[in-house]
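Something for you to look into today, if you have time. Could you write out one complete protein record for me, on any chain you like? The space below this message is yours for that.
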Amino acid sequence: MCINSSKTRLVLTTALIFVVANIMILAYPLLSSHVYAASQSANSTSFTIPTAKSVFDTGTMLLPSSVKGFIISLPDETHELDTANKTISHKNAHYLPTNIIVPNGTSIAFVHGDPNHIHVEVVRDNSTNGNVVWQTIPIKHPGSSDIKVLPTSGFYSISDPKYPSMKGTITVQKENIHSGANLVVGGFFCPTPSLANYKSEFAANGFQILSQFSFLSKTRQADIAGPTTLLIYSTTMPMQDALTKLIPMLGSLPYL
């Protein structure tokens, strides 16, 4: 009886191993396709471009080689001194974002969301004793600058000669933009109560919202205080077209 019992257990164990092995073989294509899909998702645009929360927290965006153009926004009250506590966001008070890191060959432009002020942005190459490599045309509200590709990799500073608190940086990496790069990216502040309207406007104008982050703007400036949302957007349209479509949206913001 003991021998037969042992044989029975051996047969049952072998059969169980066979069944489990076949289940794994049958399930493997499903498992492997799931892993591949997750990998694809992790490599998608929304994962490689920093999120709105990250930009809000750090004031910095590191952009992948799939980005061919970046639009730096001048938020409302960007001209104010830091000590006045009259800007929308501490980390992105004067430029949105304050610091960008881009592949070599990326086109850059500024859009102006600061009513009743004219801005001229000056970009200097800090590796050549601060030589001016770009001075934008004067930008009125709402409006945009000319478009520029910085001449070489390196570290550049941004400033506005009329407003001493306005300082930012552009770091151009040695890596070139990808040959198939087609994305233009930027950021946009809007009042949270109007968020649905602005997201609809972005979609209607050919932009995709990659991420959003809502926060409470604790500024002393009444018209920009309160619930605010930072949007990070992208588009595949030519950069000049993107600028043209952004300007009316900047003009429609209820900031004074």
Notes: The longest helix spans residues 2-42.
